[in-house]
Write a structure and sequence with these properties.
heterodimer; A: 338 residues; mainly alpha; globular; B: 473 residues; 14 helices; 6 strands
Amino acid sequence: MGIQGIDLSLIWGVIIAFGVMMYVIMDGFDLGLGILFPLIPDEQERDVMMNTVAPVWDGNETWLVLGGAALYGAFPLAYSVILEALYLPLIFMLAGLIFRGVAFEFRFKASPQKRHIWDMAFIGGSFLATFCQGVVIGTYIAGIPVVNRQFAGGNLDWLSPFPLFCGVGLVVAYALLGSTWLLVKTEGMLESRMRLFSRYLAFALMAVVTVLCVWTPWLHPEIALRWFAQAHIVVFGALMLLGVLALVGLLKTLRQHHSHWPFVFTLVLVFLGYIGLAFSIWPNIVPPSISLWDAASPPSSQLFILIGTLFILPIILMYTCWSYYVFRGKVRIGDGYH
Amino acid sequence: MLNLQALDLARIQFAFTVSFHIIFPAITIGLASFLAVLEGLWLKTNNAVYKDLYHFWAKIFAVNFGMGVVSGLVMAYEFGTNWSRFSDFAGSITGPLLTYEVLTAFFLEAGFLGVMLFGWNRVGRGLHFFSTVMVAIGTLISTFWILASNSWMQTPQGFSIVDGRVMPLDWFAIVFNPSFPFRLAHMAIAAFVATAFFVGSSAAWHLLRNNDTPAVRKMLSMAMWMALIVAPIQAIVGDAHGLNTLEYQPAKIAAIEGHWENVGDGATPLVLFGIPDMQAEKTRFAIEVPYLGSLILTHSLDKQIPALKSFPKEDRPNSTIIFFSFRIMAGLGMLMILTGLLGFALRRNGALYRNRLFLRLVLFMGPTGLIAMLAGWITTEVGRQPWVVYGLMRTADAASNHSVTQLSISLGLFVLIYFSVFAVGIGYMMKLVRKGPQPHHDHPPQGGPGQERTPRRPLSAVTETLASGDHTN
């Protein structure tokens, strides 16, 4: 479990959780743009929307690859079981990400007559990837049965109401991330429409979260047990309270026409949801039965990759901050992408 | 349990996605080093031709790199989605090696690639050259890790088996396993040669259309020097790799040679052509050259190589496939060496750039480097069968438990996506190639790439539109 008293599995659990959170937050808002695309038919405004994330979107996706590879190296059992259990949703997600990634690049290079094809690919890919990620999260929370270190559930376990609802929920959450991101990055007509959308989306997200807060413990008694246990109810209550406060803050700052605060409050909401998820399954990495330590690769493997990761991760983080800093400020119609 | 059909589909899917993917990194590896050489030569000689070529190939490099990142995303997940038993069994070794490959690639993308593609007017010459060299080294480090992983699966060592799973004991032994140095050298050189023929073919295309500029000539000349010097080196490395395989995976060699049994103490002949029949346990229509098999594989005239029949039926790789894939690889390799020699012979009086027959040959040789590389990978991977980790885990025991329906959906989807999406990408690269090298001015237009507040990602280094049939913009 540990090497010289250091719990490597715990360190790796934190690193991977951090990486996945970086992914959800950062790819969340740029996937959200694709979800909002159908609502904004104007080509110039679509250009602006894309330009707000064009410099950073592929950096956002690197976290997904890094998360996958690190999971493979540090927790091979979790990697093999989760990926096998979620086969089709993950394949569809990858397909969606490929389509929208390539659409991102080639939309700007396409002739005006063909641009709508890449727009479709961008919209479809964004929806598909987001929905599938929600399905993945839903299936994951619902639990992945494992017997003898092998996935023991059905091929279509993910195709049930709870995961599908999570898929819809994530579409709402990413759309809200996207719309509040655009409040930060745009102005004029686009901004005022996003302010309106953000309001609707905030209410929709509130509805989704409420349903999840009732449905999850009702469907999964072991999660209910955890949420409502004496020692945990305080944590759970605090999360709920903070969530309500963040939502109030979001609605209030939307009304007051703040540019940055709605995005910050949305990030807080997503972060709280993420903490809530981690809290619901801790210390399992494959709920309901495989813990971090059960799934860990040998200390020698975890230590081996930790050395490289501790060296390279800070550099990637610094570069990420730098690129967001360089591309700060509002993006206007006609601002040069190409 | 998994039936054979599902296993076949899973293998086809992996082969398809990885074959598509490897094309892009191979060109990335080759072009990165080519660009480093071009920039180095420019700094040394101040000859603008090198600078123009640098900017021309940097664009193609950027598009190619983007394609590699996107197709690589799939690979990082496929080990788990489709080969979960393998990932659980060997993940403590192959997982960390893949993690290092990904970390290296991102480290690259995060830093030096940006400077290399967008920093021409922003940093000093020395720093820019340093970045290009670092990108070139970075691609080779990435190659290092992924080939360490593959080679370990071919010739595993440095581990023990605990609770039915692999437990790493000695990382140095794991990485530097017996087949690793040969495989790494063979693959890196394959990437260089494939890129050289891609570059040479591009030059030939322009020369055949009378676009005869010093830059185009330089491309052809450099490519033909590579063919002359590096293609023969590849043959020598390949020979050494073959001897290493004979030592550690004799069944693979027997299958490559379509060699079923040894007669008495006689030397092993070389089957030049034939059709190995796995059922009948013989090679039909064999045309054999006596002694040559022994000569090539044991470097002697009397030693025998192990024969397929000496291995249990269930441990034999499919000779029908790798007999041919190996011959395609080796045959194309010979053609490449020949092209290099021809180019050298034509060089004396400048006919290299004018002989249309030769230019046509070079044009058609363009994809041969990549085809040979794919044929080589098919040989070594199919030749590893029936094992996924040689001698430790059978491929049939490695697969996830998916239904035929599921696998058909995913395979169909990948075929659709790869052919539609990457066809556009490859078409775009070819469009850039057709445009040809242009004189480069150090003052880019306002607001274009390289300016403040514009994206710094691989594809934004390229400003050409996608529209086809338009060679002028």
